[in-house]
Specification:
mainly beta, globular, OB fold (Dihydrolipoamide Acetyltransferase, E2P), 2 helices, five-stranded mixed beta barrel, about 120 residues
Amino acid sequence: MDLNKNLSWKSNYVELIGKLYDSSIKYFGEEYPRFQGKISVPMEYNYDELDGIKTSTYFKIVAWGDVAEALNEVGDGKIVLINGVLQERQYDGFCKSCGSKEKKYWSDVLITNFVVM
């Protein structure tokens, strides 16, 4: 079996477990919802020089449609397992120090499914 051939459709798959934070929902038009927020994922380092250090990493998350409405009902502070894809977005912005135009980029996880833990 050629693993590279079968892996191509899974090459952008994200699965995270963490707490929801800063969640909100916004409607476009009258009926199309977008959920956005963050998920806090606990991390523990097991390297010699960092052994036992615990911290959290925050990832931006986005969901649309029925998934957005369902996720909005979960509420901040709840632990969820999310499935989705990593996406990069951009817009034209301005440099804070010199005022020149520049592209701004950010990444977030587009949620396709989730489970409340």
